[in-house]
Each structure stands twice: as C-alpha cells, then as structure tokens.
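1st attempt posting a full record on here, be nice pls
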Amino acid sequence: MNKIALFLIVVVGGTVLDLATKTWAENNLASLSEYDRVRAREALRPEPIGERLPFLYRQVEAAHDGQTAAAWFEAAFGTPADSPPGQRAIGSLHRVLDAGYTPDRGFTPPERVERLMPATPVAAGDIIEIRHRYTVVVPGFWNHVYVRNPGAAWGMFANKPESFRRPFFVGVSFVAVFFVGFIFVRTPREQALLLVALSTIISGALGNLVDRVRYGYVVDFVDWYVTWGGQERHWPTFNIADVFISVGVGLMFVEIIRGGPREPAPAETGGETADAGAADDGA
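the predicted structure (as tokens):
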C-alpha cells in the first residue's frame, strides 16, 4: 500500500474514532457535551448562553412530579435504579437550589445544591445536577466513567496552573507529532509494520492534542480494574487515543525485535547470476 494512503487511513480513521468516542462519553456519562452546548441548557433557557458547565443539568417534567429520584433517573436515562450504574449516579444527584442565573453573566454553575437520595421525591420544575454517571461493561473489570484529565499520563502535572499546563502540553504534543511524522517520512515503504506503528502514534497524539487545544484537558472514559486483597485496583482511566499510542509503541518494539526489514538474498537481487556471468566472461 502507498505510504500516504496508509497514513491517511490510520491517522484520519483513528482520530475520528477517538473524537467520536469522547463525544459519546460526554453525552452519556453525565457531562456537558462541548459539541452541543445548547441542548444541555434548553431546560433552563431556550437560547444559547455560552458558559461551559461542569456537569449535566436536567429539569424534572410535570409527568414525573412526586416521583423518587431513583424513578426519575431511570425514566430520564433508561438505567435501572437498582443496578450498579444507577446506584452510582443516584449517589451523585443534586437538586439545584440556586441556578446562578444573572442577566449579565447568564447561567453559571450553581453554588448551592442539595444531595438527593434514591428515595427522595422530586418536583416538577426541579433542576437536577448529575455528576459522573458510569456504565458497567464487564462486571468486576471494565466500566465506562467520564474523567477530565488536565495532566499527562498518570495525572502528572495535573496540579499545575492552567497558564502553564495548556501551552506546555500543546507545545509538547506539536513537537511529538512533528518528530514522529519526520520519522514516518524517512521510513522506507518496506518497513510496513513500523509505518503502521508511527501512524497509530500520530493518530493518538492528534486526538489528545485536539482536546488540549479546545478544552485544556483530555477526556478519558475507559476504567479497567481488578479486585485484589479485598480492594479495587484501578488502572488510570484512558481513552482510544491512549490505546492507539500504546499499540503503536508496542508495534515499534516488535519491529526492533525483528531487526528491521529483511535484507534480500543474493539470489533475489540477481547477485549470483551477475557473479556467474562475470566468471564466464573471465574464463
């Protein structure tokens, strides 16, 4: 396959997949979708306001007046209240007591909220704040949960000020993409495995770079864990971009172990035939 075609397929496809899964996480794991800010605010005001909100806000409709918070949540999200995801979400429901709306600033994150228990009734018109809902994929091993990671891998530099983090990580990401891209250009077509590895690394780096530029943080949502010694041991939450980078690095190690492209045998290059011909001429 042509190098450019391979590059476009892997990089564009991987970046689109990464951003699409992050959009899904934002829309389904109790966070505001940065791609569609208006929809998350329609319960409060019909026109867009513009401020970014930290959580998802829903208004209780008249049909659910007097229902328990658990029943309302199940009706709103289709998640049974007695399931582990439901229990986690119900435990992070809050009734907004002060919507924080002012004519000059619009809607801002509320300063006063009331914790809702599963059996607490809700009333029509209540604005409910939902925090960090998750879904179980493989019980005891794999959850989906929304996390905003302002730092690097393992949360490094997460506590640094925003004025340092964003330019630092954006700059490092640009340098990394340029460096890996330079290696890709210099890599011969015969090293197909290395070309795939470099393309997947660039794809993952671009996916996280997009998050850094527009948000200042990276969206993670895959939560792997095991229960060991009576405690849950969680691997740091990651995303599809991280998977691409890890796979790319793994493929590079495989290429190193293999020792790079195989040198063609003399018979394949016509070397023996040429030598034989030279010997005949000499004779």
